[in-house]
Structures are given as structure tokens and as C-alpha cells.
Amino acid sequence: MQAYFRRFRALGGKSVEGVVQDSLQRSWCAMITRWNRMLRANASFVEWLEAREEVVGNYFCGICVRERVCSNAWDVGRICYVQVREGCAVCGSSENFSEADWQREVAEQPLGEAEQAWLAKYRRALAECVAHKTGN
Fold first, then answer.
1. What domain of life does the native source organism fall in (predicted)?
2. Domains: count for the chain
3. In terms of CB atoms within 10 Å, which end of the chain has fewer, N or C?
4. How far is CA 127 from the centre of its chain?
5. pLDDT tens-digit readout, 23-37
6. Distance CA 59, CA 65 (A)
7. CA-based nearest residue to 118, from 56, 69, 57
């Protein structure tokens, strides 16, 4: 449930760290309300969440994609690839990991199919943002 909550908050561009308790409580209640409503309607909250992430991720120059890549890394105890590439506001790690550090971790613990898909989206979004900023 914690992973779903992190992803639910990320849909609105919000993290679960550094937030006042009241805000987290309201957000948690909103997620549970949606979960229960969908359960009563025989709908899948997880499928809804994935569909929303897809839609939102396509519109925000990789912001939500960054959060998802970070969340995936945290879920499996891996170095956050966003932190490696550009610094990550979600995990806020102050460590400077290199691409080689990340590659070693992936060699030891290969990426799952979903992780690979999100990483590909992140790389595309990053390339698009760089191209947009440089006018290419």
C-alpha cells in the first residue's frame, strides 16, 4: 500500500517526504476512498493508477516519470537512476553516484520488465527536455 500511496501522491506532483502530517492524512484518505469506490464498482485501483501515470507522464516533461523511476528504485533498494543523471528531488539523495555505479547494481540485480519500460520513458523524456531547452 505504501508504494501505491507514493505513486498516488506522485500523480499530483507531490512527494511523501517533507510534508506535514495533515496533508499526508488527507491524501491517504483520498486514496483509500478511491480504492474503496473502485472496489465496489469491480474496478481495479492499480489499473487506474497505471493508466493515470501513463497519461500524466506524457504531459509533464518527465516529472512523473522521474518520480516513478525513483519509486521503482526505492522499492527494490537500487540506486536511483534519476539521481545518477540529474539529481533527484524525490529521493533527495545527496550522494553522487556514477553511471558505472548504477550499471554495477543492474548487473547484480537486473531490471524487471516494468522498470525497463519506465526507464525507457525517462530517457526519452530527458532527451526531449534537453532538445526543447536547446532549441533542437
1. Eukaryota
2. 1
3. C
4. 18
5. 889 999 999 999 999
6. 10
7. 69
